[in-house]
Every structure is written in structure tokens, then in C-alpha cells.
Specification:
7-stranded parallel beta sheet, alpha/beta, 16% strand, single chain, 354 residues, Sc_DH/Rdtase_CS, SDR family NAD(P)-dependent oxidoreductase, 45% helix, globular, transmembrane, two-stranded parallel sheet, transmembrane helix, Rossmann fold
Length: 354
Amino acid sequence: MNQVPHNRNITLPTLQPQHTGLKSLKDQVIVITGASSGVGLVTARMAAARGAKVVAAARNEDALQKLVEELQNKGQTASYVKADVGREEDIQKIADTAINEYGSFDTWVNNAGVSIYGHAMDVSNDDMKRMFDTVFWGVVYGSKTAVKHFKERGVAGALINVGSLFGDRGTVIQSTYAAAKFAVHGWTESIRMELEKEQAPVSVTLIHPGRIDTPYNEHARSYLNKQPAHGGMIYPPEAVAEAILYSAEHEKRDIYVGSQAKVFELLGTLFPRLTDKIVESYMYPTQVDANRPSKPAEESALYHAGYGMHERGTNVGWVRQGSMTVKAAQNPVFSTAVAVGIGALALGLLRKKK
């Protein structure tokens, strides 16, 4: 048997920082897609309150006008762009507006999204393709536009893609959404490595939200008899906005919003078959409101803008006050404590399985 010489020198690659020096939020121009409701709306309000210049983009022009007027009446700086992120030319229109209005932009947040509730074999291919236009292709177009801008100006900028716990582990009923978010996660991880290798001036962050209390359920296309809604434990949109805005100022690879999201990923990795059974049991009853009939398909936001200016949805779960995992991402000591706690949970589940 061949022996490896003990004196062989093994050189490990030196990990060079991609870049340094993301601006303080008060000095930034931040682009936010899906800004007319939910997480995007909360993020726009929080960013403007902290001094950032906001470029809000969505399909609902009336809601965007109201948002910008609201912010400007508070002495804050904001502009809007009516845009469908599934159209590449609309993404360019967003970037052009930011550059024409403010000379540049410093953070680009790919947040726009819409879901489909229904069994995989029942969902039409046209609906699936349309949803991918928004959830996946919108992120691709936005990422390319933002990276091109940051490279051309040579100053560090932040690209923040909003994923999902269902992008880390599949689910029932929302199979199309999970598939699109899996694609978003794969795209984000891949471009991060490429950009890091070439030392491009771009910080790439993937946000992993758990189930969030937004109008997401109301905007979704439903094939079900009962109204889509989050049940069980859900998190406030402010927790996602906090993660996004922290990533705009600090280089973060990933931020999980809610231990729910991290545990879901961990379980799926360590105990895939057990997780299958948990999902099959838990996710059917906790994705609908059994007391309401589902809205007609034409009222969904799949093909046109949904209603705007609502931060919260009509969900039926227990809404947490915030997210410990987001706090942990901002505090190394707290982060270690949370990691130990999640590890202990996983170990306990492993022992039970044995």
C-alpha cells in the first residue's frame, strides 16, 4: 500500500476577503422589489426611517404611489418604479430609475414573490412557468443587473436574495414554490462562489425566512378548497426586514429568520425520511384556514398585482415577536448559544430515533 510521505507540504488556499466597506444604511440607495406589501413594504419603511434612499418596485402602482407619498411626508427620500420582475426590461427600468434619480445604488434586494397552493400534479404548467418568472427569473435578472452595476462602479455593494425555508427542504401543497426557491438558493450559492473567486465588489446574502405573517397567502394562486394560510408558529415581517437591512451593511453569507427555518434545514439533512413523515403529517393542515373557502383563481396575484399597503396577512398561527436567529446573526456570542441549542435539539431527535 502506498504511503503518503509525512514531510509532504500541503498548501491550503488563502481565503481572501471579497471586499470591504459596505456603506452605512443612512448613506445608501437601496432597491427593493416586491415593495408594495408584506416584507418588501416593511423593509422599505424601515430603510427609509434609518436614512436610506429607497427605490420601491412592484406591479401595484397605486400602492407604490401611496408608499412614496407616505415616506416623503415624513421627510424621507423615496422613488418608485412600476415593474414586473419577471420581465428583464422592467428590471433594467428599476436600475435606470435608481441611477437617474440618485446617481447609483448600493443594495439590491430581490424580494418579490408569489406562491401556488395545490398538489403538484394538479397545477398547470402555465401557472408553474408564470410563477418561476417571478420567483426565480426575477432573482436572476435582478442579480445580473446589480452585479454589473457594482463591478462597473468598483465600489462594494450588497446583493440580497430572499429565499425560503422551502428552498432548503421541499414541502407538500407548495411544490412549485419550493422548486423555484430551491433554484434561487442554488443560483445564489453558485454566483457567490464565482464572485468571490474573482474578488468582485459584491456581498451576496441569502435570507432564509421561516413562515412569515404577510399577505403572501392572500396573493397566492390556490387550487385548494380551503383558503391558504400559515398555521402553527409564524414570524413577523419585521424580522425579515431586520435581516435584510443588517445584510445591507454587513457581509453575511446566510441569515435564517426563525429557528424554524434552521431546524427544518437541519432535520432534512440529518433525518430525511423522518422529515418526510413530519412534513406529510404537519404541513397539510397547517397551510390552510379550515374555516374559509379558497378565493377564486382570478383574485390571485399570479398574473397581475395583488392588493397593496398591507404588511400582515390573514394567517391563523401564533405570531412570534421576533427572531432569535436574526439576533444571533448580529451577535457572535448569541449566535454560539443558538447553535448549541439547535445542535442539542438535533442530538435529542437522533437519540429518539435510535
